[in-house]
Amino acid sequence: MGSELIYRRHESQPVSDSYSPKPDKPWASVVRPIRYMLREQRLVFVLVGIAIATLVFTVFPTSPAPRVPRHQFIDPIPDSISYFPVDAQNKFSHPHRVGLGSSNPAGKIPLGLKRKGLRIVVTGGAGFVGSHLVDRLIARGDSVIVVDNFFTGRKENVMHHFGNPNFELIRHDVVEPLLLEVDQIYHLACPASPVHYKFNPTNVVGTLNMLGLAKRVGARFLLTSTSEVYGDPLQHPQKETYWGNVNPIGVRSCYDEGKRTAETLTMDYHRGAGVEVRIARIFNTYGPRMCIDDGRVVSNFVAQALRKEPLTVYGDGKQTRSFQYVSDLVEGLMRLMEGEHVGPFNLGNPGEFTMLELAEVVQETIDPNAKIEFRPNTEDDPHKRKPDISRAKEQLGWEPKVSLRKGLPLMVSDFRQRIFGDHKEGSNTNNGESSS
């Protein structure tokens, strides 16, 4: 039986040319998230998170910061260091190597915000000048690392910072390498008095090591040089542009030429390796914590007068010096470090005294009956020494504030306590100090 194809057009089912998906069920957008939260106990985690957030905001409530008028800002630096320049506050509110910009063009930090402290190393920080510098840096809120071998420094000078989390003390000689992470380096480590540097002649290895550290970590480096780089000067007063008159083989040359070489190395690292450097040339400085009997004229005179010994004047006593109080020097060093100028800068008091005039001031302050004894002058002793500080005035806005007659009694009080002890501190308090 043959096959038969039957075409029944009228019996064919209509076929649609288009496809449409199943219509969404009503409330699907609400039901799906609910099912997701209920699946695998996700709702429990959501509720726990809400409870924790509520507890945190209850225990530590936040209050909106008070509106501060644009003109009401405060200086973040304490009154004791109010000399800190406004532009330096603006630039160094964060470590200087983080960046050059600032989100606060006014140069002030708004009320309620604190300046971010720097991490600073002070070599020779247990010494006379170094310990006073450490005091100011700690008061400013910086973290300070003192590095000292205690050849001339004294642990007693910094003991009052023991226990402060922002203070560290390392017994170390900088002639050996030292690895630290710091933002700034104040390099003060060096015997500065004739008694000490003649006993242990200065070398420049310590300066070389500290410059190497500054190069490795990108720290700013400040060298404390000296007015001795001018030698026995033929220019008076001495400007920073004067190259000096130094005996390279004399008994003082270990100190004079050592500092001159240190300045050379500092500038070579600046020009050749891009290290940020600052150079200060320090003139005669006095104040509390000076080494007793260190051969420097102020400490010699004060110690001799307190002990009722003759004041020893070398030569004819007509050679001149300039004396600045230690707080003035520290102010100048900090301004130099935070400023934009390399230097060198003379940091000293331009008030000039002969040795005989200084002896008279010490007599007035301590003992009017103190005798003066003349002795042969020492070799290579400079005849005149007076700084020209016009560069520091113009570029740092710095000049000394404390006169010799105001600063000397403060030093005398410290020496009296250290020589005689606490039980005799007040025995001669009025002996001449009232005349200052």
TrEMBL record:
Amino acid composition bias (Basic and acidic residues), ranges on this chain: 1-12, 370-396
Residue span of region Disordered: 1-25, 369-396
Classification via Gene3D superfamilies: NAD(P)-binding Rossmann-like Domain (3.40.50.720)
Lineage summary: Eukaryota, Viridiplantae, Streptophyta, Embryophyta, Tracheophyta
Keyword Transmembrane helix: yes
Listed EC numbers: 4.1.1.35
Family from the record: Belongs to the NAD(P)-dependent epimerase/dehydratase family. UDP-glucuronic acid decarboxylase subfamily.
Transmembrane segments: 42-60
UniProt name for this protein: UDP-glucuronate decarboxylase
CDD domains xref list: UGD_SDR_e (cd05230)
Keywords recorded for this protein, A-Z: Decarboxylase, Lyase, Membrane, NAD, Transmembrane, Transmembrane helix
Pathway(s) where this gene product acts: Nucleotide-sugar biosynthesis; UDP-alpha-D-xylose biosynthesis; UDP-alpha-D-xylose from UDP-alpha-D-glucuronate: step 1/1
